[in-house]
Amino acid sequence: MSKKVLAIVETKDNKLRNVSLEVLTAANRITDRQEVVTVAFGDDMEKHMEELGKYGASEIYTVTNEELDVYTTDAYFQALCQVIEEIKPDVILMPHTAIGKDLSPRIASFFSLGLVSDVIDVQKEGEDITFTRPIYAGKALERRKFVEGIQFATIRPNNIIPLQNEGSIKKVDFKVEVNNLRTVIKEVIRKTSEGVDLTEAKVVIAGGRGLKSPEGFKLLQNLADVLGGAIGASRGACDAEYCDYSLQIGQTGKVVTPDLYIACGISGAIQHLAGMSNSKIIVAINKDPEAPIFDIADYGIVGDLFDVVPMLTEEFKKITIAAV
Ligand code: FAD
Question: Most CB contacts within 10 A, which of 29, 149, 196, 312?
Answer without folding.
Answer: 312
